[in-house]
Amino acid sequence: MTKKQFKAESKRLLEMMINSIYTQKEIFLRELISNASDAIDKMYYKALTDETITFDKDGYYIKVVADKEKRSLTITDTGIGMTKEDLETNLGTIAKSGSLAFKTENELKDGHDIIGQFGVGFYSAFMVADEVTVTSKAVSTDEAFKWKSDGADGYTIEPAEKESYGTEIVLKVKENTEEENYDEYLDDYRLKAIIKKYSDFIRYPIKMELTERKLKEGSDNEGEESKEVQTINSMVPIWRKNKNELTLEDYENFYKEKHYGFDKPLKHIHISVDGAVRYNAILYIPENIPFDFYTKEYEKGLELYSNGVLIMNKCADLLPDHFSFVKGMVDSEDLSLNISREILQHDRQLKLIAKNIKSKIKSQLLNLLKDEREKYEQFYQSFGRQLKYGVYTDFGSNKEALQDLLMFYSSTEKKMVTLDEYVSRMADDQKYIYYASGESNERIEKLPQMELVSDKGFEVLYFTEDIDEFAIKMVATYKEKEFKSVSSGDLGLDEDQESKVESEENDHKELFAAMKKVLEDKVKNVRVSKRLKTHPVCLATDGEVTIEMEKILQAMPD
Ligand code: ADP
Ligand code: MG
Protein backbone atom coordinates (compact mmCIF):
# COMPACT_ATOMS: atom_id res chain seq x y z
CA MET A 1 0.00 0.00 0.00
CA THR A 2 1.22 3.46 -0.74
CA LYS A 3 1.41 5.80 2.14
CA LYS A 4 -0.37 9.08 1.63
CA GLN A 5 0.82 12.42 2.89
CA PHE A 6 -1.40 14.44 5.17
CA LYS A 7 -3.06 17.31 3.46
CA ALA A 8 -3.34 20.49 5.38
CA GLU A 9 -5.40 23.57 4.91
CA SER A 10 -2.24 25.62 5.07
CA LYS A 11 -4.02 28.93 5.10
CA ARG A 12 -6.01 27.99 8.18
CA LEU A 13 -3.07 26.27 9.76
CA LEU A 14 -0.93 29.35 9.39
CA GLU A 15 -3.61 31.56 10.85
CA MET A 16 -4.18 29.24 13.77
CA MET A 17 -0.54 28.88 14.47
CA ILE A 18 0.32 32.55 14.36
CA ASN A 19 -2.56 33.59 16.52
CA SER A 20 -2.26 30.86 19.06
CA ILE A 21 1.43 30.68 19.81
CA TYR A 22 2.14 34.33 20.44
CA THR A 23 0.51 36.17 23.27
CA GLN A 24 1.61 39.59 22.09
CA LYS A 25 1.63 41.01 18.58
CA GLU A 26 4.70 43.17 19.19
CA ILE A 27 6.77 39.97 19.27
CA PHE A 28 6.91 39.96 15.44
CA LEU A 29 9.64 42.58 15.53
CA ARG A 30 11.72 40.51 17.91
CA GLU A 31 11.38 37.56 15.53
CA LEU A 32 12.34 39.48 12.38
CA ILE A 33 15.28 41.12 14.10
CA SER A 34 16.43 37.77 15.48
CA ASN A 35 16.37 36.38 11.95
CA ALA A 36 18.38 39.35 10.69
CA SER A 37 20.89 38.85 13.47
CA ASP A 38 21.15 35.14 12.61
CA ALA A 39 21.76 36.07 8.97
CA ILE A 40 24.66 38.31 9.97
CA ASP A 41 26.00 35.63 12.31
CA LYS A 42 26.01 33.21 9.41
CA MET A 43 28.08 35.69 7.42
CA TYR A 44 30.48 35.76 10.30
CA TYR A 45 30.77 31.96 10.41
CA LYS A 46 31.13 31.76 6.67
CA ALA A 47 33.92 34.31 6.76
CA LEU A 48 35.77 32.09 9.22
CA THR A 49 35.96 29.27 6.68
CA ASP A 50 35.69 31.03 3.32
CA GLU A 51 38.67 33.11 2.31
CA THR A 52 36.77 35.02 -0.36
CA ILE A 53 34.59 36.64 2.29
CA THR A 54 35.92 39.19 4.69
CA PHE A 55 33.84 40.11 7.66
CA ASP A 56 34.06 43.84 8.04
CA LYS A 57 32.22 44.53 11.24
CA ASP A 58 31.13 48.06 10.32
CA GLY A 59 29.30 46.84 7.23
CA TYR A 60 26.89 44.74 9.27
CA TYR A 61 23.74 46.17 10.69
CA ILE A 62 19.97 45.88 10.86
CA LYS A 63 17.80 48.80 9.89
CA VAL A 64 14.18 49.49 10.77
CA VAL A 65 12.24 52.13 8.83
CA ALA A 66 8.56 52.99 9.14
CA ASP A 67 6.59 54.95 6.58
CA LYS A 68 3.24 56.15 7.86
CA GLU A 69 1.90 57.25 4.47
CA LYS A 70 2.64 53.99 2.74
CA ARG A 71 1.83 52.05 5.93
CA SER A 72 5.02 50.13 5.41
CA LEU A 73 7.55 48.86 7.88
CA THR A 74 10.89 47.78 6.44
CA ILE A 75 13.51 45.64 8.16
CA THR A 76 16.79 45.41 6.30
CA ASP A 77 19.87 43.38 7.11
CA THR A 78 23.29 42.97 5.54
CA GLY A 79 23.43 39.29 6.38
CA ILE A 80 24.01 36.21 4.31
CA GLY A 81 20.84 36.59 2.22
CA MET A 82 18.72 33.89 0.60
CA THR A 83 18.87 32.25 -2.81
CA LYS A 84 15.73 31.41 -4.72
CA GLU A 85 15.88 27.91 -3.23
CA ASP A 86 16.36 29.29 0.26
CA LEU A 87 13.27 31.46 -0.12
CA GLU A 88 11.38 28.45 -1.36
CA THR A 89 12.43 26.09 1.43
CA ASN A 90 12.81 28.42 4.38
CA LEU A 91 9.94 30.81 3.86
CA GLY A 92 7.75 28.51 1.77
CA THR A 93 7.73 25.68 4.27
CA ILE A 94 6.23 26.24 7.67
CA ALA A 95 8.36 24.84 10.46
CA LYS A 96 11.43 24.63 8.27
CA SER A 97 14.34 26.35 9.92
CA GLY A 98 17.27 27.21 7.71
CA SER A 99 19.05 28.33 10.83
CA LEU A 100 18.73 24.98 12.55
CA ALA A 101 20.02 23.31 9.37
CA PHE A 102 22.92 25.74 9.30
CA LYS A 103 23.84 24.86 12.86
CA THR A 104 23.76 21.14 12.08
CA GLU A 105 25.62 21.39 8.79
CA ASN A 106 28.38 23.47 10.27
CA GLU A 107 28.43 21.35 13.38
CA LEU A 108 28.05 24.35 15.56
CA LYS A 109 27.73 23.12 19.09
CA ASP A 110 26.10 24.95 21.95
CA GLY A 111 27.58 28.24 22.78
CA HIS A 112 27.14 29.90 19.40
CA ASP A 113 24.69 32.70 19.08
CA ILE A 114 22.31 31.69 16.32
CA ILE A 115 18.80 32.09 17.65
CA GLY A 116 16.46 30.44 15.15
CA GLN A 117 15.44 26.82 15.46
CA PHE A 118 11.73 26.29 14.92
CA GLY A 119 11.04 27.80 11.56
CA VAL A 120 7.90 29.68 12.52
CA GLY A 121 9.06 33.07 13.80
CA PHE A 122 9.02 34.68 10.39
CA TYR A 123 5.28 34.11 9.99
CA SER A 124 4.56 36.18 13.09
CA ALA A 125 4.86 39.13 10.68
CA PHE A 126 1.36 38.25 9.49
CA MET A 127 -0.01 39.17 12.91
CA VAL A 128 0.45 42.81 11.98
CA ALA A 129 0.77 42.77 8.18
CA ASP A 130 -1.61 42.06 5.29
CA GLU A 131 1.26 41.44 2.99
CA VAL A 132 4.93 40.63 3.41
CA THR A 133 7.56 41.11 0.72
CA VAL A 134 11.04 39.70 1.14
CA THR A 135 13.72 40.78 -1.30
CA SER A 136 16.98 38.96 -0.87
CA LYS A 137 20.32 38.46 -2.48
CA ALA A 138 22.52 35.67 -1.21
CA VAL A 139 26.21 36.28 -0.70
CA SER A 140 28.35 35.04 -3.61
CA THR A 141 25.46 35.19 -6.09
CA ASP A 142 24.48 37.87 -8.59
CA GLU A 143 20.76 37.48 -8.64
CA ALA A 144 18.18 38.80 -6.24
CA PHE A 145 14.68 37.41 -5.73
CA LYS A 146 11.45 38.68 -4.36
CA TRP A 147 9.16 36.52 -2.22
CA LYS A 148 5.69 37.86 -1.64
CA SER A 149 2.71 36.62 0.32
CA ASP A 150 -0.49 37.80 1.92
CA GLY A 151 -0.26 34.95 4.39
CA ALA A 152 -3.38 33.31 3.02
CA ASP A 153 -3.09 32.30 -0.60
CA GLY A 154 0.46 31.08 -0.72
CA TYR A 155 3.38 33.03 -2.09
CA THR A 156 5.09 34.09 -5.32
CA ILE A 157 8.77 34.30 -6.12
CA GLU A 158 10.17 36.41 -8.94
CA PRO A 159 13.53 37.89 -9.92
CA ALA A 160 14.26 41.30 -8.42
CA GLU A 161 16.78 44.08 -8.30
CA LYS A 162 18.96 44.44 -5.27
CA GLU A 163 22.39 45.95 -5.18
CA SER A 164 24.11 44.48 -2.19
CA TYR A 165 23.59 41.13 -0.55
CA GLY A 166 21.33 40.74 2.41
CA THR A 167 17.60 40.80 2.95
CA GLU A 168 14.92 43.44 2.96
CA ILE A 169 11.54 42.63 4.47
CA VAL A 170 8.63 45.00 3.86
CA LEU A 171 5.46 44.64 5.89
CA LYS A 172 2.27 46.26 4.71
CA VAL A 173 0.90 47.10 8.13
CA LYS A 174 -2.78 46.29 8.72
CA GLU A 175 -5.42 49.00 9.09
CA ASN A 176 -6.66 49.65 12.63
CA THR A 177 -9.71 47.72 13.67
CA GLU A 178 -12.05 48.41 16.54
CA GLU A 179 -10.25 46.04 18.84
CA GLU A 180 -6.74 46.37 17.58
CA ASN A 181 -4.41 49.28 16.99
CA TYR A 182 -1.87 48.63 14.26
CA ASP A 183 -0.78 52.23 13.73
CA GLU A 184 1.55 51.85 16.66
CA TYR A 185 3.80 49.62 14.55
CA LEU A 186 4.39 52.61 12.29
CA ASP A 187 5.33 54.89 15.14
CA ASP A 188 9.07 55.37 15.48
CA TYR A 189 9.04 55.77 19.22
CA ARG A 190 6.86 52.75 19.81
CA LEU A 191 9.12 50.71 17.54
CA LYS A 192 12.16 51.97 19.37
CA ALA A 193 10.63 50.87 22.66
CA ILE A 194 9.86 47.40 21.31
CA ILE A 195 13.43 47.05 20.06
CA LYS A 196 14.79 48.17 23.41
CA LYS A 197 12.57 45.73 25.22
CA TYR A 198 13.33 42.56 23.30
CA SER A 199 16.39 43.14 21.19
CA ASP A 200 18.58 45.46 23.21
CA PHE A 201 21.39 42.94 23.36
CA ILE A 202 21.42 41.78 19.75
CA ARG A 203 25.12 42.01 18.91
CA TYR A 204 24.79 44.00 15.72
CA PRO A 205 23.60 47.58 15.55
CA ILE A 206 19.88 48.07 15.00
CA LYS A 207 19.51 51.44 13.32
CA MET A 208 16.56 53.76 12.99
CA GLU A 209 16.19 57.18 11.46
CA LEU A 210 14.63 59.26 14.16
CA THR A 211 13.37 62.80 13.94
CA GLU A 212 15.31 65.06 16.22
CA ARG A 213 14.21 68.56 17.09
CA LYS A 214 17.12 70.85 17.60
CA LEU A 215 16.53 74.28 19.09
CA LYS A 216 17.87 77.22 17.14
CA GLU A 217 20.67 78.98 18.89
CA GLY A 218 19.44 81.66 21.25
CA SER A 219 15.83 80.53 21.04
CA ASP A 220 13.94 78.32 23.42
CA ASN A 221 11.07 77.26 21.23
CA GLU A 222 12.06 77.78 17.62
CA GLY A 223 13.62 74.62 16.34
CA GLU A 224 14.56 72.64 13.33
CA GLU A 225 13.61 69.07 12.72
CA SER A 226 16.11 66.74 11.22
CA LYS A 227 16.39 63.04 10.67
CA GLU A 228 19.24 61.36 12.37
CA VAL A 229 20.36 57.76 12.17
CA GLN A 230 20.66 56.28 15.62
CA THR A 231 21.69 52.90 16.93
CA ILE A 232 18.92 51.79 19.23
CA ASN A 233 20.34 48.74 20.99
CA SER A 234 23.10 48.58 23.58
CA MET A 235 24.57 45.53 21.80
CA VAL A 236 27.02 44.31 24.41
CA PRO A 237 25.10 42.98 27.34
CA ILE A 238 26.55 44.22 30.58
CA TRP A 239 26.26 40.72 32.02
CA ARG A 240 28.68 39.33 29.49
CA LYS A 241 31.29 41.87 30.41
CA ASN A 242 34.03 41.10 32.83
CA LYS A 243 33.22 42.07 36.39
CA ASN A 244 36.36 44.10 36.82
CA GLU A 245 35.58 46.14 33.72
CA LEU A 246 32.39 47.36 35.33
CA THR A 247 31.94 50.12 37.86
CA LEU A 248 29.33 50.52 40.54
CA GLU A 249 27.81 53.21 38.35
CA ASP A 250 27.42 50.77 35.46
CA TYR A 251 25.39 48.47 37.67
CA GLU A 252 23.31 51.34 39.03
CA ASN A 253 22.61 52.61 35.52
CA PHE A 254 21.52 49.19 34.39
CA TYR A 255 19.15 49.00 37.37
CA LYS A 256 17.62 52.31 36.35
CA GLU A 257 17.49 51.56 32.64
CA LYS A 258 15.72 48.30 33.27
CA HIS A 259 13.26 49.98 35.64
CA TYR A 260 13.93 47.49 38.38
CA GLY A 261 13.15 50.25 40.84
CA PHE A 262 13.17 53.99 41.40
CA ASP A 263 15.64 53.65 44.23
CA LYS A 264 19.28 52.77 44.02
CA PRO A 265 20.13 49.14 44.56
CA LEU A 266 21.50 48.34 48.00
CA LYS A 267 23.67 45.63 46.52
CA HIS A 268 24.26 44.00 43.17
CA ILE A 269 25.25 40.40 42.52
CA HIS A 270 26.92 39.56 39.21
CA ILE A 271 27.03 35.84 38.51
CA SER A 272 28.78 34.05 35.66
CA VAL A 273 28.54 30.29 35.85
CA ASP A 274 30.14 28.02 33.30
CA GLY A 275 29.71 24.48 34.46
CA ALA A 276 26.99 21.85 34.32
CA VAL A 277 24.67 24.75 33.81
CA ARG A 278 25.74 27.93 32.08
CA TYR A 279 24.26 31.30 32.73
CA ASN A 280 24.97 34.90 33.49
CA ALA A 281 22.91 36.92 35.89
CA ILE A 282 22.82 40.37 37.37
CA LEU A 283 20.73 40.53 40.50
CA TYR A 284 19.91 43.38 42.81
CA ILE A 285 18.73 43.81 46.35
CA PRO A 286 16.69 47.00 46.32
CA GLU A 287 17.31 49.70 48.86
CA ASN A 288 13.63 50.38 49.49
CA ILE A 289 10.63 48.13 49.76
CA PRO A 290 8.72 48.25 46.46
CA PHE A 291 5.45 50.06 47.16
CA ASP A 292 3.36 46.96 46.46
CA PHE A 293 5.77 44.45 47.98
CA TYR A 294 3.61 43.29 50.84
CA THR A 295 0.44 43.15 48.72
CA LYS A 296 -1.11 40.47 46.54
CA GLU A 297 -0.33 42.51 43.44
CA TYR A 298 3.41 42.11 43.82
CA GLU A 299 4.85 39.69 41.28
CA LYS A 300 8.22 38.19 42.00
CA GLY A 301 10.50 37.09 39.19
CA LEU A 302 13.58 37.74 37.12
CA GLU A 303 13.87 38.69 33.48
CA LEU A 304 14.86 35.71 31.45
CA TYR A 305 17.00 35.97 28.32
CA SER A 306 17.98 33.25 25.95
CA ASN A 307 21.10 34.23 24.10
CA GLY A 308 20.51 37.91 24.71
CA VAL A 309 16.91 37.86 23.52
CA LEU A 310 14.23 38.54 26.10
CA ILE A 311 12.03 35.50 26.61
CA MET A 312 10.13 36.32 29.76
CA ASN A 313 9.57 39.49 31.70
CA LYS A 314 9.06 37.91 35.08
CA CYS A 315 10.12 34.35 35.42
CA ALA A 316 8.78 33.47 38.85
CA ASP A 317 10.34 30.02 38.94
CA LEU A 318 13.79 31.54 39.23
CA LEU A 319 13.21 32.93 42.71
CA PRO A 320 12.05 31.30 45.93
CA ASP A 321 9.36 33.25 47.77
CA HIS A 322 11.68 34.21 50.58
CA PHE A 323 13.93 36.03 48.09
CA SER A 324 11.03 37.57 46.17
CA PHE A 325 12.52 41.04 46.72
CA VAL A 326 15.44 40.29 44.40
CA LYS A 327 15.33 42.06 41.01
CA GLY A 328 17.37 41.41 37.92
CA MET A 329 17.96 39.19 34.93
CA VAL A 330 19.29 35.85 33.88
CA ASP A 331 20.69 34.96 30.48
CA SER A 332 21.38 31.40 29.44
CA GLU A 333 22.20 29.63 26.22
CA ASP A 334 21.04 26.29 27.52
CA LEU A 335 17.32 26.79 27.87
CA SER A 336 14.96 24.56 25.95
CA LEU A 337 12.38 26.94 24.64
CA ASN A 338 9.01 26.07 23.27
CA ILE A 339 7.97 27.09 19.82
CA SER A 340 6.79 30.60 20.70
CA ARG A 341 10.07 31.17 22.50
CA GLU A 342 7.97 32.69 25.25
CA ILE A 343 7.95 29.80 27.63
CA LEU A 344 10.19 26.94 28.45
CA GLN A 345 9.71 23.44 27.31
CA HIS A 346 10.91 21.47 30.26
CA ASP A 347 12.46 23.09 33.18
CA ARG A 348 15.35 20.92 34.23
CA GLN A 349 17.81 23.57 33.18
CA LEU A 350 15.75 26.29 34.75
CA LYS A 351 15.52 24.37 38.01
CA LEU A 352 19.28 24.03 38.12
CA ILE A 353 19.71 27.73 37.51
CA ALA A 354 17.11 28.58 40.16
CA LYS A 355 18.85 26.37 42.70
CA ASN A 356 22.18 27.92 41.91
CA ILE A 357 20.80 31.45 42.15
CA LYS A 358 19.19 30.70 45.48
CA SER A 359 22.45 29.63 47.07
CA LYS A 360 24.29 32.59 45.52
CA ILE A 361 21.83 35.06 46.97
CA LYS A 362 22.11 33.42 50.35
CA SER A 363 25.88 33.51 50.42
CA GLN A 364 25.89 37.11 49.26
CA LEU A 365 23.53 38.06 52.06
CA LEU A 366 25.78 36.29 54.55
CA ASN A 367 28.71 38.27 53.17
CA LEU A 368 26.78 41.46 53.53
CA LEU A 369 26.02 40.57 57.13
CA LYS A 370 29.67 39.83 57.79
CA ASP A 371 31.28 42.71 55.95
CA GLU A 372 28.73 45.49 55.79
CA ARG A 373 26.66 45.17 58.91
CA GLU A 374 24.91 48.51 58.57
CA LYS A 375 23.77 47.75 55.05
CA TYR A 376 22.62 44.34 56.13
CA GLU A 377 20.54 45.80 58.91
CA GLN A 378 19.00 48.21 56.43
CA PHE A 379 18.19 45.29 54.19
CA TYR A 380 16.82 43.32 57.11
CA GLN A 381 14.59 46.16 58.17
CA SER A 382 12.94 46.06 54.74
CA PHE A 383 12.92 42.39 53.89
CA GLY A 384 13.65 40.48 57.10
CA ARG A 385 9.99 39.64 57.36
CA GLN A 386 10.18 37.82 54.04
CA LEU A 387 13.06 35.69 55.32
CA LYS A 388 11.14 34.80 58.46
CA TYR A 389 8.18 33.97 56.32
CA GLY A 390 10.44 31.66 54.34
CA VAL A 391 11.56 29.88 57.49
CA TYR A 392 7.97 29.46 58.57
CA THR A 393 6.43 28.25 55.31
CA ASP A 394 9.02 25.85 54.01
CA PHE A 395 10.44 23.68 56.70
CA GLY A 396 12.36 21.56 54.21
CA SER A 397 15.62 23.20 53.39
CA ASN A 398 14.78 26.85 53.92
CA LYS A 399 15.17 26.66 57.65
CA GLU A 400 18.78 25.59 57.42
CA ALA A 401 19.48 28.08 54.69
CA LEU A 402 17.87 31.05 56.33
CA GLN A 403 18.34 30.77 60.07
CA ASP A 404 21.77 32.38 59.95
CA LEU A 405 20.25 35.40 58.25
CA LEU A 406 17.75 36.08 61.00
CA MET A 407 18.13 38.95 63.44
CA PHE A 408 16.28 40.08 66.52
CA TYR A 409 16.59 42.93 68.96
CA SER A 410 18.54 41.96 72.05
CA SER A 411 17.72 42.98 75.62
CA THR A 412 21.34 43.18 76.65
CA GLU A 413 23.03 44.43 73.50
CA LYS A 414 20.26 46.95 72.76
CA LYS A 415 20.59 46.29 69.03
CA MET A 416 19.84 43.68 66.39
CA VAL A 417 21.77 40.46 66.85
CA THR A 418 21.98 37.15 65.02
CA LEU A 419 21.25 33.77 66.58
CA ASP A 420 24.88 32.89 66.22
CA GLU A 421 25.92 35.94 68.19
CA TYR A 422 23.37 35.12 70.87
CA VAL A 423 24.51 31.54 71.28
CA SER A 424 28.19 32.53 71.41
CA ARG A 425 27.41 34.79 74.38
CA MET A 426 25.34 32.26 76.33
CA ALA A 427 26.40 31.64 79.94
CA ASP A 428 27.48 28.14 80.98
CA ASP A 429 24.40 27.63 83.13
CA GLN A 430 22.04 28.99 80.47
CA LYS A 431 19.94 26.26 78.98
CA TYR A 432 17.75 28.08 76.50
CA ILE A 433 17.65 30.87 73.97
CA TYR A 434 15.12 33.19 75.58
CA TYR A 435 12.68 35.36 73.74
CA ALA A 436 9.78 37.59 74.64
CA SER A 437 6.89 38.56 72.37
CA GLY A 438 5.08 41.86 72.38
CA GLU A 439 3.95 44.80 70.33
CA SER A 440 7.09 46.85 70.75
CA ASN A 441 10.46 46.77 72.46
CA GLU A 442 9.14 49.19 75.11
CA ARG A 443 6.19 46.98 75.89
CA ILE A 444 8.35 43.89 76.13
CA GLU A 445 10.74 45.61 78.48
CA LYS A 446 7.87 46.15 80.91
CA LEU A 447 6.68 42.56 80.88
CA PRO A 448 6.72 41.02 84.37
CA GLN A 449 7.95 37.79 82.78
CA MET A 450 11.12 39.53 81.68
CA GLU A 451 12.38 40.11 85.17
CA LEU A 452 13.56 36.72 86.23
CA VAL A 453 15.49 35.95 83.08
CA SER A 454 16.97 39.43 82.96
CA ASP A 455 18.00 39.26 86.58
CA LYS A 456 19.96 36.14 85.86
CA GLY A 457 21.84 38.29 83.36
CA PHE A 458 20.52 36.27 80.43
CA GLU A 459 19.94 37.87 77.08
CA VAL A 460 16.39 37.97 75.72
CA LEU A 461 15.44 38.37 72.05
CA TYR A 462 12.47 40.64 71.38
CA PHE A 463 9.84 39.35 68.99
CA THR A 464 7.78 42.26 67.78
CA GLU A 465 6.45 40.92 64.49
CA ASP A 466 3.54 38.53 64.10
CA ILE A 467 5.64 36.05 62.22
CA ASP A 468 8.56 35.91 64.66
CA GLU A 469 7.33 33.33 67.09
CA PHE A 470 5.87 31.13 64.36
CA ALA A 471 9.14 31.17 62.48
CA ILE A 472 11.15 30.32 65.58
CA LYS A 473 8.85 27.39 66.33
CA MET A 474 9.97 26.07 62.95
CA VAL A 475 13.64 26.60 63.70
CA ALA A 476 13.04 24.80 67.04
CA THR A 477 16.72 24.58 67.93
CA TYR A 478 19.74 26.57 66.95
CA LYS A 479 23.17 25.05 67.56
CA GLU A 480 21.40 22.49 69.74
CA LYS A 481 19.86 25.18 71.93
CA GLU A 482 16.14 25.25 72.31
CA PHE A 483 14.14 28.44 72.18
CA LYS A 484 12.10 29.38 75.22
CA SER A 485 9.53 32.08 75.67
CA VAL A 486 9.94 34.04 78.91
CA SER A 487 6.19 33.48 79.32
CA SER A 488 6.35 29.71 79.31
CA GLY A 489 5.86 27.65 82.44
CA ASP A 490 9.25 26.08 82.86
CA LEU A 491 12.04 28.54 82.32
CA GLY A 492 14.79 26.15 83.27
CA LEU A 493 16.19 28.52 85.84
CA ASP A 494 16.13 27.22 89.46
CA GLU A 495 14.87 23.75 90.16
CA ASP A 496 15.10 23.99 93.95
CA GLN A 497 12.16 26.35 94.09
CA GLU A 498 9.69 23.52 93.58
CA SER A 499 9.15 22.69 97.25
CA LYS A 500 8.83 26.35 98.20
CA VAL A 501 6.14 26.81 95.57
CA GLU A 502 4.26 23.84 96.87
CA SER A 503 4.24 25.00 100.46
CA GLU A 504 3.17 28.52 99.48
CA GLU A 505 0.34 27.10 97.43
CA ASN A 506 -0.81 25.06 100.45
CA ASP A 507 -0.54 28.00 102.83
CA HIS A 508 -2.78 30.19 100.68
CA LYS A 509 -5.18 27.61 99.31
CA GLU A 510 -8.30 29.61 100.13
CA LEU A 511 -7.01 32.85 98.69
CA PHE A 512 -6.23 31.14 95.35
CA ALA A 513 -9.61 29.45 95.29
CA ALA A 514 -11.33 32.80 95.86
CA MET A 515 -9.31 34.47 93.09
CA LYS A 516 -10.15 31.69 90.68
CA LYS A 517 -13.81 32.04 91.46
CA VAL A 518 -13.77 35.77 90.77
CA LEU A 519 -11.92 35.32 87.47
CA GLU A 520 -14.09 32.33 86.63
CA ASP A 521 -13.77 31.36 82.96
CA LYS A 522 -11.17 34.04 82.17
CA VAL A 523 -8.32 31.89 83.45
CA LYS A 524 -7.73 28.20 83.72
CA ASN A 525 -5.92 28.30 87.01
CA VAL A 526 -4.38 30.59 89.62
CA ARG A 527 -1.02 29.49 90.93
CA VAL A 528 2.05 30.56 92.77
CA SER A 529 4.62 31.73 90.26
CA LYS A 530 8.30 31.21 90.58
CA ARG A 531 8.93 33.79 87.93
CA LEU A 532 7.87 36.97 89.64
CA LYS A 533 10.12 39.35 91.50
CA THR A 534 8.79 42.87 91.86
CA HIS A 535 5.53 42.39 89.94
CA PRO A 536 2.60 40.93 91.87
CA VAL A 537 1.08 38.97 89.00
CA CYS A 538 1.56 37.81 85.43
CA LEU A 539 -0.28 35.81 82.80
CA ALA A 540 1.18 32.53 81.64
CA THR A 541 0.29 29.75 79.26
CA ASP A 542 1.06 26.15 79.79
CA GLY A 543 1.03 24.77 76.25
CA GLU A 544 3.28 25.39 73.27
CA VAL A 545 1.17 28.28 72.06
CA THR A 546 1.99 31.53 73.83
CA ILE A 547 -0.42 34.35 74.56
CA GLU A 548 1.02 36.39 71.68
CA MET A 549 0.55 33.54 69.25
CA GLU A 550 -2.96 32.98 70.49
CA LYS A 551 -3.80 36.62 69.81
CA ILE A 552 -2.59 36.26 66.24
CA LEU A 553 -4.37 32.99 65.67
CA GLN A 554 -7.60 34.48 66.96
CA ALA A 555 -7.24 37.51 64.68
CA MET A 556 -6.88 35.30 61.62
CA PRO A 557 -9.94 34.67 59.48
CA ASP A 558 -11.23 31.08 59.72
P1 ADP B 1 13.79 30.20 12.64
O1 ADP B 1 14.38 31.54 12.82
O2 ADP B 1 13.33 29.59 13.93
O3 ADP B 1 14.66 29.28 11.86
P2 ADP B 1 11.89 31.61 11.03
O4 ADP B 1 10.51 31.29 10.60
O5 ADP B 1 12.06 32.84 11.83
O6 ADP B 1 12.45 30.36 11.80
O7 ADP B 1 12.80 31.69 9.75
C1 ADP B 1 12.84 30.59 8.87
C2 ADP B 1 14.13 30.56 8.12
O8 ADP B 1 14.14 31.57 7.11
C3 ADP B 1 15.36 30.83 8.93
O9 ADP B 1 15.81 29.68 9.57
C4 ADP B 1 16.34 31.31 7.89
O10 ADP B 1 16.94 30.23 7.22
C5 ADP B 1 15.46 32.04 6.90
N1 ADP B 1 15.45 33.50 7.11
C6 ADP B 1 14.49 34.22 7.72
N2 ADP B 1 14.81 35.53 7.76
C7 ADP B 1 16.03 35.64 7.16
C8 ADP B 1 16.91 36.75 6.87
N3 ADP B 1 16.61 38.00 7.24
N4 ADP B 1 18.06 36.47 6.21
C9 ADP B 1 18.37 35.20 5.86
N5 ADP B 1 17.59 34.13 6.09
C10 ADP B 1 16.42 34.34 6.74
MG1 MG C 1 13.46 33.16 13.50
TrEMBL record:
PROSITE patterns recorded: HSP90
Domain Histidine kinase/HSP90-like ATPase: 24-177
A, as annotated region: 1-341
Superkingdom of the organism of origin: Bacteria
Principal location: cytoplasm
Keywords: ATP-binding, Chaperone, Cytoplasm, Nucleotide-binding, Stress response
Cellular localization per UniProt: Cytoplasm
Subunit composition and interactions: Homodimer.
HAMAP family: HSP90 (MF_00505)
Family: Belongs to the heat shock protein 90 family.
Function (record text): Molecular chaperone. Has ATPase activity.
PANTHER family: HEAT SHOCK PROTEIN 90 FAMILY MEMBER
Protein name per Swiss-Prot or TrEMBL: Chaperone protein HtpG
Source organism of the structure: Halalkalibacter alkalisediminis
